[in-house]
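Technical note accompanying the year-one report. For the benefit of new consortium partners, we illustrate the data format agreed upon in the data management plan: each record pairs a sequence with a C-alpha cell string. No post-processing was applied to the example shown here.
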Amino acid sequence: MTEEIIRTVKVSKCYLFGSTEVHALVDVDFTVKKGDFVAIMGPSGSGKSTLMHILGCLDRPSKGEYYLEGTPVSQLSDHELATIRATKIGFVFQAFNLLPRTTALDNVILPLLYGRQRPDKKPAEEALKRVGLGDRMYHKPGELSGGQQQRVAIARALVTNPAIILADEPTGNLATLQSEEIMQLFQKLNDEGITIVLVTHEAEIGAHAKRIVRFLDGRILSDTPVEQRVFATDLLAQEEAIT
C-alpha cells in the first residue's frame, strides 16, 4: 500500500467575526499519498487557502484531525509544530518571499538555520543545482528573472529534504513561459518522488498535476484524476520551435 503523507478526518474551520460565524472548511476528508501531485482548485473564498494553512501547520482546525505522516497534529506543541514546518514541509509562495539583499545561496540556506541544522553550504548548493541555478548561486533576487526567483524559492523548499512541498499559487506572479518552466520543474521533482500539493485558480496550471481536488463553500466538490494531463516539457519545446 502506498504510504499516506497527509490525511484529514472531518476537518472544519470556523472563524468568528463579531456575532457572525464563517465556515471556511466543513467536514473535509482529504488524503495525499507519497509521490502524489495534487492541485487544489476553487473560487476565491472556497476554502483552499485555509486548507493549505492547516496542512502547513500554520493554523489548526476548529474540529476534526489532521495526520501528517501518521502523526495527529493536534497533539503537538507549538515548538513541535515549528520543527515540522522547518524540516518536514517545504513552502513555495506566490510572492517568492526572498530576502532582497542576500544571494540566492544565502536565501536557500535559511531553512537550515531555522531548523537548527548545521549551516552547511553544500545542501543549499545541491538544491540550487537541482533547480537549474548552479550558475546563479551568488546573484541577488534583483539580478534574477521572476522565474529564476521562484526557482530559488523552490530550492529553499527542497533544502531540508521535506516530506512534502506545499505551493500556494506559485505561478501567480509569472508570465506564461515562466509559469511553464516552473511547472516543468515541479513535474520533474514529482517524477523524482517529491510529493506536491499545489493551490491554483488556473485550470491550465492544475492540468499539470496528477489529481485535481475542487473546493466550493468549504467542502470538497470533486476529487478526480487528471485524464488529459499537460506536460510542460512538450509546451516548452513548442514555444522554442516557434521562437
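Partners are asked to follow this layout when depositing records. The domain at 4-242 is CATH 3.40.50.300 (Rossmann fold).
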